[in-house]
Amino acid sequence: MSGQAIVVGGGIGGLAAAVALRRIGWQATVLERAPELGEIGAGMSQAPNALRALDELGVGERARAAGVPTYSAGNLRLPDGRYLQRARPGDPTPLLAFHRADLHGVLREAVPADWLSTGVKVTGVRQDGDEVTVTWSGGEARADLVIAADGIHSTLRRLLWLDAPPPRFLGRTAWLGVTPPGALRGSVTTKDPDELAGSVTMGPGAYFLIHPLSRDRVYWACVTTADRPDLRYEMEKAEVARRLTGWHDPIPSLIAATPDDAVIHIDIHDLDPLPAYVHGRVALLGDAAHAMSPDRGQGAGQSIEDAVVLAAALAGETSIDAALRRYDAERRPRTQATARGARTDGRRTTSAAAHRALVTMIRLMPRALWLKGIAADGNPTWRWQPPHLTAPTVQC
């Protein structure tokens, strides 16, 4: 089975969907509301499940070349610098860290240029039998299938899933930053270069994440609690530095090395579970379907999985409707369980009351057991295996 799809949203999930569709012989148009395709200046890590999905998209090798191994799961610290668990030279790590724009670029290169349309703000969608029409100011397009990959504030989810609640604020906020290339040479106050190999520093009510990036850059994030969303500060960089006064090196140096206007402040939201990811010939994908807290590092990875599973269903079923039923049945349980787990992890890692118990548990855990838990097959989320994408043999 082959056909024509419209993908609404040109982020990582939307581009992954377009690449997956191309792999199975479909045609697609990607509609992005921004005037240019791109990603925010932040980093992330991808786990083995996402890397396997990228392999099925045919971009795994290029993605690995753009990523950097991060030991954030193996290096857990306290604000005074003491290690609760520490990676040793030669330890394997299943995680690769990326600047979001780098992974986005890998996927963009795999999508034909004439499939991409920017500056298109979708305003409506209507379904007529086996055809779906997407409308925007000054235009419309028809297709056999529409994939809504337009993020946590999805327009198509709002238009079609009328009973779906809005995104839910999780009582947490985050500052994100990426140091410029080479900015750390000679400026980071640390006696141990491995401190920039990736780590998580856990304080009462906050944590600080470090990921190394390509081109001699470092991504950092500070996540803490907030009474309400939209609390902003005149000097965001100064505010996060103030909150982390006294935390160990290289945290102060990383913040100082980041340009003031490059510090991003976001509030953390997720979505309550939806009863379905499919409405007629419209399928939700990525954050539009299951936006989640970043605490398991699975947001982008789950959207890439979505793309592979949807394409495999389209290639393997005899009708689009059957394929969408299969996609919904396979993706909802997994993504919603992952979102629940991320929400729980986020509450625990930023709870001042739970901090001492969490630290004690990590400190007392035998190193061998800790390493087993962060191995590539150490948990069910990372063990996921993607379906194989093959081009259809029968056209219909």
UniProtKB/TrEMBL annotation:
GO terms for molecular function: FAD binding; monooxygenase activity. Residues 331-352 are annotated as: Disordered. Keywords: FAD, Flavoprotein, Monooxygenase, Oxidoreductase. Its cofactor is FAD. The keyword Translocase does not apply. Residues 4-340 form the FAD-binding domain. SUPFAM superfamilies: FAD/NAD(P)-binding domain (SSF51905). This is 2-polyprenyl-6-methoxyphenol hydroxylase-like FAD-dependent oxidoreductase. It comes from Nonomuraea rubra.
